[in-house]
Amino acid sequence: MEYHLKTPLKKEDIEKLSAGDIVYLSGEILTARDEAHARILEMGEKKEELPFSMEGAVIYHCGPLMKQTENGWKVVSAGPTTSGRMSKMTPPFLKAHQVRAIIGKGGMKDVADALKNRSVYLAYTGGCAALAAELIKEVKAVHWLDLGMPEAVWVLRVEEFGPLIVGIDTKGKDIFAEIREKAQKQLEKQG
Amino acid sequence: MSTKINRESFIRSIADLLRKAEIELPDDVVNALRKAEAAEENQVAKSQLQAILKNLEIAKKYRVPMCQDTGIMIFFAEIGSEFQPGFDLEAAIREAVALATAEIPLRPNAVDPLTRKNSGNNLGVGIPDIHWKIVPGNQLKITAAPKGAGSENMSALRMFNPTETGSIKNFVLETVVNAGGMPCPPLTIGVGIGGSFDAAARLAKEALLEPLDAPMEGLEREIFEAVNALGIGCMGLGGSTTALAVRVKTAHCHTASLPVAVNIQCWANRHASVVFGGDE
């Protein structure tokens, strides 16, 4: 199935998605990778308020390449980064915030449970940064530039962002885990 | 002194070389991706390969880096023993990296390993990483190979017992399975066997630069077929194209050791070369 969704995502928008479906997203997405995840969790512990809203948010595991122009920031190249690095931080992150979708690449180990009935994991083709940049129409804001360009939180407006493959759905089905399991079996057979 | 080159034009050439490496893949890599797309029967994997090919077209059309992870700057330099630049080559290469970072632009990726502070210009202690080799002749050949972290992080090195040559294939397979979709397959897999702890890693990295269209033989083919039977596929979403090629390089090693390094390269096997001097 193919879906075209708009942010902020509602629970019913993502509950209908099944692993393997294709999604195109329009609206607002927030980039966050290693350092931003760490800071969001740290601020949560200290009960400090974030400078951006996470209600129904879509988080994009991405450290974009940006260029500052006279008219503000411009996206040069903005593909997904390896989600696996955020695996450990994601369950507490999802518990604290009503994030509805995570976009990344490569999947995440042991997060299917944390995503259940809450959120989906959407896989975007790794390295396809020029293609992604074409679909990002506006840089709406940037937070935490002190973390460096790749680690900062960029608020982006996207149109028909995709194709995104539903990698982990709200029912706990995880394509990456299934394929890893099969590969492991094949490895044992060959070894 | 016929090999003397102009410092400013050298810096320009190296910055242009980086631009080329970041925007366009070598023909052999593009052809391997096209072949993979044509052969792939898994529809999800096929859609990913099509996105990759489309991305390459857009990068080329708008002259923008194909991936936002523009890598850390790695150079392989073969300098002829009769080549006399007349200036500090390493300083000039560093200047070219800073220039390319600002003008292409490239993402600033170089950070202090402990404080994680970003230098802002892709320069740092030991970065760019320049591998010098002195060769006969009066030319200087420089290959730029910007390396992204997603695939580099999935690489592995193991010091085997000398009697364990039969375990090498399994080690490569284990490395690929652990990596899953994280290093952005379809991969080029560089395997360095022998040398020493660091020499094996260097061999593995050099192996990534070998042309992908040359036939694979012996252990290369054996590993290649086993890797593609794993079913990890493009981006770890399944299918038959986990690797585009496996390249093995060997060196003699100590009788008591067997170092094996596996350097994982994402589909964006970026590299470009330029030659200075000579008789042209």
Task: Kindly provide the radius of gyration of chain B, computed on alpha-carbon positions and rounded to a whole number of angstroms.
Answer: 19 Å
Largest sheet of chain B: 4 strands, mixed
Number of helical stretches of at least 4 residues of chain B: 8
Beta strand count of chain B: 8
Helical residues, percent of chain A: 25-40%
Oligomer: heterodimer
Low-confidence residue ranges of chain A:
none
H/E topology pattern of chain B:
HHHEHEEHEHEHHEEE
Mean pLDDT across every amino acid position of chain B: 96
Extract low-pLDDT stretches of chain B. none
> Briefly, what CATH class of chain A?
Alpha Beta
Would you list the SSEs of chain A in sequence order as H and E? EHEHEEEHEHEHEEH
CATH architecture title of chain A? Alpha-Beta Barrel
Q: What pair of chains forms the biggest interface? A: A-B, 47 and 52 residues
Distance between the termini of chain A: 38 Å
**Structural class of the secondary elements of chain B?**
alpha/beta
Keywords (chain A): Lyase
GO molecular function (chain A): hydro-lyase activity
Protein name (chain A): Fumarate hydratase
Domain Fe-S hydro-lyase tartrate dehydratase beta-type catalytic (chain A): 4-178
Would you give an account of this structure?
Chain A is of the alpha/beta class. Chain A has one domain: Alpha-Beta Barrel (fumarase). Chain A is built from six helices and nine strands. Chain A has a five-stranded mixed barrel. A two-stranded antiparallel sheet of chain A has the order 4-5. With 280 residues, chain B is an alpha/beta fold. Chain B has a domain at 149-265. Chain B has eight helices and eight strands. In chain B, helix 4 (89-103) links the parallel strand 1 and strand 2 (129-135). In chain B, helix 1 (7-23) crosses helix 4 and helix 6 (168-179) runs parallel beside helix 8 (218-228). The longest helix of chain B is centred in the first third of the chain and has 20 residues, at 43-62. The two termini of chain B are 14 Å apart. The interface between A and B is large, with 47 and 52 residues. Chain A: Residues 4-178 form the Fe-S hydro-lyase tartrate dehydratase beta-type catalytic domain. Chain A: Keywords: Lyase. Chain A: One of its GO terms (molecular function) is hydro-lyase activity. Chain A: Belongs to the class-I fumarase family.
